[in-house]
């Protein structure tokens, strides 16, 4: 049954099977996110004043310093004791593994993210929980697929399912979770991806609502654009937010490049020093900062204080993320955008739209410009406010901010910039993207017969009676099979009617050297394997501990070309 599921999932679109897996992944990812959130909020409630989860500004200065020092020590030791490959975490790690490792996320990095991310957020570093949430959700789904030995093309979809469920469970915004998964992580819009991702996002949102209720992450007052005369001012706000997003991207990438060659403990120590300096200027920058957003939405924060929070929060977030603190940047990005939006709205006359509108638009424009994911930002603003009236001004501001960051300031999307800074490239041509969607077991040739290097005539005749296309010869020289056309063996039998034995490695014919490929591999992996070596064919073999390996089929360049033609 499981083998039949694997074979079906290797096709271009296996919507019923992927939808069922999306449901399972949504449940698992949401439960992991809820556990992560419970750990953070439960721990914060033990020592923060009034049992809150964001009241760091109410702590004494000495207590804030102690928290940062303790958190830096724990995070630094955790990273120092880990292997270098296990230290990569967050959305960037998910995107990297999705592009270069077929979505296979290691469990050690997920454990590192869970513990390190929780410690960093609890002790007040300027990082968010959505980045760790995306990593944990994606890793949970990926590990399920790896444990089940599912084909890599479906494994990529499961990573997107876990990502969408994590965003939906964090913000109670399932539609934004879907768009974020396909726009930022997968970078692919196909029916075979969107439907299971939608199922996962709905599942994650339902489970989160069952625990935390229907309330959104922020208390948003009724907001609407009061006059079309504000549209030019909204464009100005988009310009300001785009410049801020460009500064955040540039500063984060610059810090990340500088930190690459530095020891782990030194990087975390520098992050602690900068956080202590920033928290002394504005204690509100500690933690994610959702309490600041809620206060700004109600108009309870002065414009001067909002401006200070925006500047200090931007610097603290860029420095912490760039230095490798295992937290996310989506939440702090929303805080910076909310503060700047509140500043822009706070200087308008009272007759104009209230500050709440500009705070909401600022959040989404900052997110859209930083990630350069305008659709995800638009869906976020719609689900966040439940007021369609904000869509028009929100669309205008998000577009201006994104264009400013990308065109005027020439800054790439945040995660793309961090990848490029590490010498990695996420870009793929259209052919490669298409080949990623098909597994080798879907197009492999199963018309083959495995035979030893020397066979009797009767054995060869019986084998040819089954009408194979290829003969798989087990070579005794390097223990690698050799592929022989069945037509060549049939010709040899006809040309030598007196022969009783045939050496298949010596008879005239079209023989091809082969190497092994996993049945979970995609057609892109198969093509790269054929192009990167001296072999001309592949054999699909599954290996299991304690069992004899099983060859399922063979693959030639012609089969890969046929698989590409089957794509819709």
Give the topology.
Elements: H1 2-9, H2 15-47, H3 61-80, H4 90-100, H5 107-122, H6 130-147, H7 152-171, H8 174-186, H9 191-212, H10 231-259, H11 264-281, H12 290-297, H13 303-322, H14 330-346, H15 355-371, H16 374-385, H17 391-408, H18 414-421, H19 430-435, H20 440-443, E1 448-451, E2 454-456, H21 457-464, E3 470-474, E4 481-485, H22 486-495, E5 501-503, E6 511-517, H23 523-532, E7 537-542, E8 550-555, H24 557-565
Parallel strand pairs: 1-3, 6-7
Antiparallel strand pairs: 2-5, 3-4, 4-6, 7-8
Helix pairs in contact: 2-5, 2-6, 2-7, 2-9, 3-5, 3-11, 4-6, 4-18, 5-6, 6-7, 7-8, 7-9, 8-9, 8-16, 10-13, 10-14, 10-15, 10-17, 10-18, 11-13, 12-14, 13-14, 14-15, 15-16, 15-17, 16-17, 21-22, 23-24
Number of helices: 24
- Strand percentage, roughly? 5-15%
The domain tally reads 3
How many beta-strand elements?
8
**CATH homologous group name of the largest domain:** Clc chloride channel
Radius of gyration: 28 Å
Q: Class by helix and strand content? A: alpha/beta
CATH top level class name of the largest domain: Mainly Alpha
The shape, in one word, is elongated
The strand order across the widest sheet is: 1-3-4-6-7-8
| CATH topology tier name of the largest domain | Clc chloride channel
End-to-end CA span: 27 Å
What percent of the residues sit in helical stretches (DSSP H or I)?
A: 55-70%
